[in-house]
Amino acid sequence: MSITERDDSGASHPAIETVEGKRGYELVVAASFMVSVLATVGLGVSYWLGGQPQIEGALLFVTLGGIGIGMVAWGKYLVPQGPYVQERETLKSEILEREAFLESLERGQRQLGRRPFLGKLLGLSVGLFGIINIFPFLRSLGPQPKKALFTTPWKAGALIVSVGGAPITVDTLEVGGIQTVFPSYDVGGAISQTVLIRIGDTNWTTLPGRETWGPNGYLAYSKICTHAGCPVGLYQELTQQLLCPCHQSLFDVLTGATPVFGPAPRPLPQLPIYFDSKGNLRAQAGYDQPVGPGFWERG
Ligand code: FES
Questions:
Q1: What is the value of pTM for the model shown?
Q2: CA-CA distance, 261 to 263, in Å (whole number)?
């Protein structure tokens, strides 16, 4: 059923359309919001998979277009339009007219309040779009470092070789000698570089718990300074200290490369090593702590 009202010009028109008449518009609005939601999900998936500018642009267009079309259609076709002028031939209204007015008013209120589904759909569409927009921010932070900041390529059983790829044997270094070494599968690797020093010809324990880490007087330390990452390559045999040339930090080789002078805040990590049955030097395991300076100081 519809009610006819008259406007300023005297023309009559349906004041409140039937529920059936509005249903088509409601479907249009709901479809617009649903299309927007689906496009937003597609946008999120596209970001997650690495992104493709043309696809993301098209999905963004559909997302915003769906919200816009839905809101415009809602406002234009589902919200009662005005102004309406009621005929007022007498100033005093009859009881029946007052009841009709109240009924009309309540019907209008019901019209405004009976579309919670569309409201929720609009909220879902806009909210999801806001959440999806966090993705570009997260992706701009770059790839996740995962365990890369805590580990190096060194691992148990790694064959230790010189920069030329030659395996290290017991006779490679004289007492007091020093050499830069790498795992055989990462020769030249920046964070794998390790200084090998021979401080004597008997097994040496630098710290409690490291009784097997210094076979035949060989000790291996990370070459990356714990202050700012310079290569620590100067060995003073007389004092058995390693010197970093950048800011003159000194590390005591005999006691686990603990810093004894300069700005370095912590010891050089020591690599546990052993000689295998063929006499080649190998790593017992990787470094037991991150190499180099703190994460936030690395270049
Ligand atoms: S980088 Fe080694 S002391 Fe500064």
A1: 0.59
A2: 7
